[in-house]
């Protein structure tokens, strides 16, 4: 059998900080999806830039909650 243990969290961030990070991450994710949609259907020269910006926003939306997370 494996000896798997979950590491205890040493400090708890304030609830407002955690809630704010979740809201900002959700807005970045949804905004990134909107930018991808606009960029993929745009006939203007800024279409590719909007598409790439959407991909970056979605990536940041996934990465933002991982701030401060590390493996011991």
Topology (elements, then pairings):
Layout: H1 15-41, H2 47-63
Compact overview of the structure:
With 72 residues, this protein is mostly helical. The protein contains two helices and no strands.
Radius of gyration: 18 Å
In DSSP terms (H or I, runs of 4 or more residues), the helix count works out at 2
What would the principal axes of the Cα set say about the shape? elongated
Structural class: mainly alpha
Average pLDDT works out at 83
Number of strands: 0
- The proportion of residues in beta strands is under 5%
Largest β-sheet summary: none
What pattern of helices and strands is seen along the backbone?
Answer: HH
Terminus-to-terminus distance:
21 Å
Relative helix content: 55-70%
Can you tell me the residue ranges where pLDDT is under 50 for at least 5 consecutive residues? none
């Amino acid at each position: 059998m494996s000896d798997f243990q979950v590491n205890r969290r040493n400090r708890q961030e304030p609830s407002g900080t955690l809630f704010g990070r979740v809201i900002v991450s959700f807005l970045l994710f949804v905004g990134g999806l909107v930018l991808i949609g606009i960029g993929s259907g745009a006939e203007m020269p800024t279409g590719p830039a909007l598409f790439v910006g959407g991909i970056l926003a979605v990536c940041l939306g996934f990465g933002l909650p991982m701030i401060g997370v590390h493996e011991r």
